[in-house]
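Could you help me review a protein record that somebody else here produced? Do not assume that whoever made the record got everything right. The record follows directly below this note.
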Amino acid sequence: MTMRKFLPVLLLVMSLFSCVTQEKVERAELIAHAGGAIDGYVYTNSLEALERAVENGYRYIEFDLGFTSDSVLVAVHSWSDFNRMTGNADWGDSVPDHSHFTAQKIHGRYTPLTAEMINDYFVKNPGIYLVTDKISSPAVLESYFPELKGRMVVEAFSYEHYRELLRKGYFRVLYSCMAEDMASAFMKHLLFDRIFPGERIEWVALHTSGFNHSIFKLLNSTRRFNVALFTVDNYNEILPEYRNRAKMIYTNTILPEQLLNP
């Protein structure tokens, strides 16, 4: 029997013998996705979206990170999206250099963000937390955000990054359920973490469709993972099972006051 076929059997056995209880969550923390919505626009990763998110009461604000052609870290969901939103759709997915990036206006009005600008803003506003996506290299993040470890939530795309980020003292590390070594990392967490040394996976970043995945249903029965769920834009779509399992929810449009007073 191959490991792929054997994994569900092992997970089922573990779920039958698990007696770990899940903490009940009365209110999830909302994450302003890609800086949060502004004037009906989403995925802008812009300065104005960041400012609007803070005004709206978000404590956790996420940015997608990527490098310009001359290796400057900036906030961008994808280069094709950025080029389209800045009126340069004919550029396709080509990557601009730093000077061309900062010279653009998103939807003709919003300011693109460099990692340096993000770092400066969060340093000056200590009540908010930076959530990152796309890049989880500890060396890169430590280089660009040296003062924010205690206020950073990082989505890790490998177990090696997950472990190193925890060891370096980052506030919260989310293990991406789309990571290539997901199965092996979950196996380690479920079966071997009491035998071999290593950080346990406590938090996972999970797409809403993941709740219906057969493997996650088995994992869910062990009730050992805290879930950061993406992406939910309608409070009425947050099913009771999501509310009980998700401690963090990525959103473009749900305001913190709506979650407090549904």
Remarks:
- The chain has one domain: 26-257.
- The domain at 26-257 is CATH 3.20.20.190 (TIM Barrel).
- Confidence is low (pLDDT under 50) at residues 11-25.
